[in-house]
From TrEMBL:
Domain of life: Bacteria
The keyword ATP-binding belongs to this UniProt entry's keyword annotation: yes
GO biological process: L-amino acid transport
Family to which this protein belongs: Belongs to the ABC transporter superfamily.
A single MF term (Gene Ontology): ATP hydrolysis activity
ABC transporter domain: residues covered: 5-237
Keyword entries, A-Z: Amino-acid transport, ATP-binding, Nucleotide-binding, Transport
The keyword Transport belongs to this UniProt entry's keyword annotation: yes
UniProt cross-references to InterPro entries, sorted A to Z: AAA+_ATPase, ABC_transporter-like_ATP-bd, ABC_transporter-like_CS, BCAA_Transport_ATP-bd_LivF, P-loop_NTPase
Name assigned to this protein: Amino acid/amide ABC transporter ATP-binding protein 2, HAAT family
SMART domains per record: AAA
Length: 237
């Protein structure tokens, strides 16, 4: 399988604080990769660095093209969509209006309508609530809306920051099942940053472990799940 994204020697800092110390990783085309690590390890910073939301050093190659000097807007146009932690939906707009805004990069009415219907195929709960204000949705529904909105960009790669954040276990499980459907049916590659290692390793093909800004382990998700030290530190059994 070829790689949709290749990252080499990625460094990032906030002022004097070095957060990423030259990390390397790949995301296979059509695959799900997860980046695991404790609080503050640098997971969110990695996602921000890929889409140019912070200054970074190193090489980032998307579909064979260097993107490490590009603006966030241009990176998004190439097909890289972020689903930020905390969701970032427009709370005073309806579900449907949020989805329409998600397609801002190609303002063509007909295809937008078709894509909204496609999103509702993955998220029937949102279809029932299409006229409801986003701010009045439950936490799980807001997470669904954030993912659905990212899909409106017709992304090739989705970067998801803690999709389980603040959600009850049952809702989290449903969201991961939908992500598995999106991977299978829409063929979207994904990088999932998660603290819930068990869930993330269940959906991922490949996993990387980050500790204080360095990759300390990588391998097939199955092998990582069986590793003794990962079990003790991240899986709790
Ligand atoms: P979490 O799971 O808690 O979100 P994380 O692995 O995503 O953790 P990051 O958010 O990447 O971690 O943060 C890495 C380090 O960078 C932390 O020490 C954090 O305090 C620091 N940091 C993050 N954002 C900023 C910022 N805007 N300014 C200064 N320091 C920051």
């Amino acid at each position: 399988m070829s790689n949709i994204l290749e990252v080499r020697g990625l460094e990032a800092s906030y002022g004097d604080l070095t957060v990423l110390r030259g990390i390397d990783f790949d995301i296979a085309d059509g695959g799900v990769t997860t980046l695991l690590g404790a609080n503050g390890a640098g997971k969110t910073t990695t996602l921000r660095a890929i889409c140019g939301m912070i200054r970074r050093k190193g090489e980032i190659t998307f579909e064979g093209k260097r993107i490490d000097r590009m603006s966030t807007e241009n990176i998004v146009r190439l097909g890289v969509a972020q689903v930020p932690e905390g969701r970032g939906t427009f709370t005073t707009l309806t579900v449907e209006e949020n989805l329409q805004l998600g397609a801002m990069t190609r303002p063509n009415d007909k295809s937008i309508h078709e894509d909204i219907e496609k999103s509702f195929h993955f998220f029937p709960r949102l279809k029932e609530r299409r006229t409801q204000q986003a701010g009045t949705l439950s936490g799980g529904e807001q997470q669904m809306l954030a993912i659905a909105r990212a899909l409106m960009l017709r992304p090739k790669l989705m970067l998801l920051d803690e999709p389980s954040f603040g959600l009850a276990p049952l809702i989290t499980k449903q969201i991961f099942e939908i992500l598995a459907d999106v991977k299978r049916e829409a063929g979207v590659s994904m990088l999932i940053v998660e603290q819930n290692a068990s869930l993330a390793l269940g959906i991922a093909d490949h996993a990387y472990l980050i500790e204080t800004g360095s990759i300390v382990m990588s391998g097939e998700a199955k092998a990582i799940r069986e590793d003794e030290s990962v079990r003790a530190s991240y899986l709790g059994y």
